[in-house]
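User: I'm putting together notes for a lab meeting next week and I want to include a structural view of one of the chains we've been expressing. I don't have a solved structure, so I'd like a prediction I can at least talk through. The sequence is below, exactly as it appears in our construct file.
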Amino acid sequence: MSLTKDLMPKVGFGLWKIAQQDCAQAVFDAIEAGYRHFDSACDYGNEKQVGEGIKRAIDAGLVTREELWITSKLWNTFHAKEHVELAAQRTLDDLQLDYLDLYLIHFPIAQPFVDFDSRYPPEWITNPDADVPCMELAPVPLFETWQAMESLVEKGLCKEIGVCNYNSGLLNDLMAYAKIKPACLQVESHPYLTQARLMKLASQYDIQVTAFSPLGALSYLELNMAGENDSVLQQQVVKDAAQRLGKTAAQVVLRWGVQRGNAIIPKTTKKSRMVENLSIFDFSLTDQEMDAISALNMNRRFNDPGDFCEAAFNTFYPIYD
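Assistant: Thanks for the context. Below is the predicted structure for the 321-residue chain, given as structure tokens.
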């Protein structure tokens, strides 16, 4: 039985792009607002501050460790079997935790190892001082990485393991060799990218899906990876549902996400928005509204290594067809 499907709160708090100086307070505020699920990663560069926020909340009696669901992710440079446990332990040390509830392979992309003392988090570029800095690749099969992930469960460093940014082919392959089956698949999904076939496959395998960027373009405006006109919140079907329900457009879109059966991990540092994003369980969308919002799908992917790796890291490396 998967703990993830039964125990992971369906609305989590996303920690991507939260600045270090704001992060500890944001985590504390989120726990105070009622969040119990936090989605972290080595690559976000703020796990020490996340840990500080969690510790403050526990010390203040707001929550116990057992009441929290903490997810983190293995970065690309730590895929080799001898590096997976080192990376997981560094994350645990930074978060000031003894175990993770869920540990995910962040991308199906293996890169050369970067020592912690050299640069942490390592990010995408292998040697920033090179004449042409680029993202380099390492010949590490995903099978090897998964076996090392399984050993983390056996050693008690994490309760469950899963994957991010896998397509259906990689997921089918993983299920063929995994001794410990993935508990979670985390992928980008919102009304412009419904990923219905992938969701159906995950359900068939009894894998919980977590949708990142559940509001779509809003996560990417500050990165110049989306424009104001890309916002799903301006769609008439969303605004009509919001008006009928007396809710915000964002709440309607987030409700659509969880009503599909997914967990979602919206991100904000504003207390009022924290409460708003969590307040989506006192209403439901009609079947017609669900279908109309799903019909907005245009397979619009904002977070695509096939686009940003070449533009930002001088390496073309698509993982989606």
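A couple of points you could mention at the meeting. The two ends are 33 Å apart (CA to CA). The chain has one domain: 3-313.

User: Perfect, that's what I needed.
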